[in-house]
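Dear V.,

Thank you for sending over the compound details. I've combined the ligand you provided, zinc ion, with the protein sequence from our construct and run the structure prediction for the complex. I'm sharing the raw inputs here so there's no ambiguity about protonation or stereochemistry in the SMILES, which I know was a concern on your side last time.
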Amino acid sequence: MSFTDPAKSQPVSCPQCGTDVEQTPGRGKVKRFCNPSHGRSWRTRMRSAGWL
Ligand SMILES: [Zn+2]
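Below is the predicted structure of the protein with zinc ion bound, written out as structure tokens.
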């Protein structure tokens, strides 16, 4: 485990359900959702609220 990427050293919780999201060490983008379906429903909610 390295802490060279500050974005990944922060704990992330899923905006949809509040569960801690485990980050994959190394390269790749920061995961924000505990599973893809939560990401999808979150985006749907934001869009229906007029945020997108
Ligand atoms: Zn979730």
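A first observation: Residues 3 and 9 are 6 Å apart (CA to CA).

Warm regards,
I. M.
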